């Protein structure tokens, strides 16, 4: 089964004060002078002696690239508001003092430049009632102070993530045709895609990636910019990876759900890389945007999907963020990775509640680069996939990778969500909402079975299928009020 972690995070109300605060001399809530001696006295006397130190997790043993001095901090379940305020103030105060001392001793120190280039000293993230924490650039002394706070569940070394593209090849449009057929394709220059032309209406698909070239003609005005996370980056896809993924989800000619809205959430820079901490902020943005859309009750809104065609080493914090977003109602697809290795070694591929997608070829083989194993849920076309690209409004290119497979599943989730039966249908889901657990279960059950070659025994041999534009009663007929436990059990059974 996918990797899971024992930390369950309980949210708390965020108090409105700036995280980029000036030097503090007094905490008005506690009437406590903020200095080293009084801070230690207050901390240990008021909140009891520390019994243990929060662990530090790292993916560097798997050869992943660690970002120096950068950490992700996740809070425990039980929180107290006074402790929370004090923790933030103390971390910021300690960090500012240590930076000031270091800058006086060594003005050219690389750490100083790193802090100044990172924006806010503390970047907080919060997803519903499930995950709450922050990231930042910390000196060793500050990090030890953080780890000794009993509020902290764990600290994770921030690490690099990369777009899971593999290569750029010549044009070869076949992926859409394959997901609308139970049979293997004969090799040809073009293929027929069978689908319902209402697919995608009312659904918003978030692309957490390098951005989207929203002016591309193929999006017909349905693409918009949501959020840019990395400091110093423009609201622009200057790489092309995100635009390609968005095109597979919802473009006019290359997309599965041709009427959906796509939203750019930029977490990767122009070189296709980024940090785990920025990816978590991207997931937070998507979860909050979806929650807002649900509360607004916009007529015709049918739900939200999200795609992450990126990966890095195992990150408990990122996996928890993705799982929390799924529980908040986001239908999530993630790439399995391109290392020809066990997908359980990377995140977000190991996130339990997302749909993790491996790549297949036109000849119905597991793509030679695709990751595999129990953390993979299903396969989708991922070799030589033609889609939208950057540069000019008609630009296209073909790319390969599990990055190209994941938007196939997200496009399919978007397609099915939009076609959910109306309230007068016998297949109308309870409450009118198809949960991520329900839809994941149905997509896996509806997939074409045992059709791919070179799939290891411990990997589900499933290829996604859209119903070929026919009556979807067989698909909707088994929708039940699945809960998380049922979803996990389905995943185990299919392995």
UniProtKB/TrEMBL annotation:
PROSITE patterns: SUBTILASE, SUBTILASE_ASP, SUBTILASE_HIS, SUBTILASE_SER. Residues 200-447 form the Peptidase S8/S53 domain. The active site is at residues 209, 241, 403. InterPro entries: PCSK9_ProteinaseK-like (IPR034193), Peptidase_S8/S53_dom (IPR000209), Peptidase_S8/S53_dom_sf (IPR036852), Peptidase_S8_Asp-AS (IPR023827), Peptidase_S8_His-AS (IPR022398), Peptidase_S8_Ser-AS (IPR023828), Peptidase_S8_subtilisin-like (IPR050131), Peptidase_S8_subtilisin-rel (IPR015500). It holds the Pfam family Inhibitor_I9. One of its GO terms (molecular function) is serine-type endopeptidase activity. Residues 70-162 form the Inhibitor I9 domain. SUPFAM superfamilies: Protease propeptides/inhibitors, Subtilisin-like. Keywords: Hydrolase, Protease, Serine protease, Signal. One of its GO terms (biological process) is proteolysis. Residues 1-18 form the signal peptide. It comes from the Eukaryota. PANTHER family: CEREVISIN-RELATED (PTHR43806:SF11), PEPTIDASE S8 (PTHR43806). Belongs to the peptidase S8 family. This is Peptidase S8/S53 domain-containing protein.
């Amino acid at each position: 089964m996918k990797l899971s972690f024992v930390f369950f995070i309980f949210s708390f109300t965020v108090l409105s004060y700036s995280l980029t605060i000036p030097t503090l001399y007094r905490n008005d809530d506690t009437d406590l002078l903020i200095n080293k001696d009084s801070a230690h006295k207050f901390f240990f006397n008021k909140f009891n002696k520390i019994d243990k130190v929060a662990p530090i997790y790292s993916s560097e043993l798997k050869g992943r690239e660690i970002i120096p001095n950068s950490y992700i901090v996740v809070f425990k379940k039980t929180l107290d508001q006074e402790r929370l305020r004090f923790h933030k103030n103390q971390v910021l105060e300690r960090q500012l003092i240590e930076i000031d001392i270091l800058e006086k001793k060594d003005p050219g120190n690389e750490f100083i430049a790193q802090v100044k280039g990172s924006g806010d000293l503390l970047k907080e993230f919060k997803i519903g009632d499930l995950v709450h924490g922050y990231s930042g650039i910390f000196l060793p002394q500050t990090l030890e102070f953080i780890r000794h706070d009993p509020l902290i569940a764990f600290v994770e070394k921030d690490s690099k993530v990369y777009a899971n593209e593999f290569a750029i090849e010549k044009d070869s449009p076949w992926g859409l045709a394959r997901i609308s057929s139970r049979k293997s394709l004969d090799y040809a220059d073009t293929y027929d895609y069978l689908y319902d032309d209402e697919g995608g209406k009312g659904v918003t698909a978030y692309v957490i990636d390098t951005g989207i070239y929203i002016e591309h003609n193929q999006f017909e005005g349905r693409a918009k910019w949501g959020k840019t996370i990395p400091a110093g980056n423009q609201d622009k896809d200057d790489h092309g990876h995100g635009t390609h993924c968005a095109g597979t989800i919802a473009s006019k000619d290359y997309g599965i759900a041709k009427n959906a809205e796509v939203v750019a959430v930029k977490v990767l820079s122009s070189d296709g890389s980024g940090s785990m901490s920025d990816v978590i902020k991207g997931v937070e943005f998507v979860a909050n945007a979806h929650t807002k859309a649900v509360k607004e009750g916009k007529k015709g809104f049918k739900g939200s999907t999200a795609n992450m065609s990126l990966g890095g080493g195992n990150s408990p914090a990122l996996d928890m963020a993705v799982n929390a977003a799924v529980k908040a109602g986001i239908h999530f697809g993630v790439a399995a990775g391109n290392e020809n290795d066990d997908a359980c070694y990377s995140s977000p591929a190991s996130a339990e509640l997302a749909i993790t997608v491996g790549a297949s070829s036109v000849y119905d083989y597991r793509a030679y680069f695709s990751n595999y194993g129990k953390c993979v849920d299903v396969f989708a076309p991922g070799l030589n996939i033609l889609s939208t690209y950057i540069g000019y409004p008609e630009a296209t290119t073909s790319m390969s990778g599990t990055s190209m497979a994941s938007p196939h599943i997200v496009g399919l989730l978007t397609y099915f969500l939009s076609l959910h039966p109306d309230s007068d249908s016998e297949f109308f889901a309870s409450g009118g909402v198809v949960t991520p657990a329900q839809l994941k279960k149905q997509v896996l059950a509806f997939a074409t079975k045992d059709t791919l070659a070179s799939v290891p025994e411990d990997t589900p041999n499933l290829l996604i299928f859209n119903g070929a534009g026919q009556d979807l009663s067989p698909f909707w007929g088994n929708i039940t009020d699945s809960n998380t436990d049922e979803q996990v059990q389905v995943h185990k059974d299919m392995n």
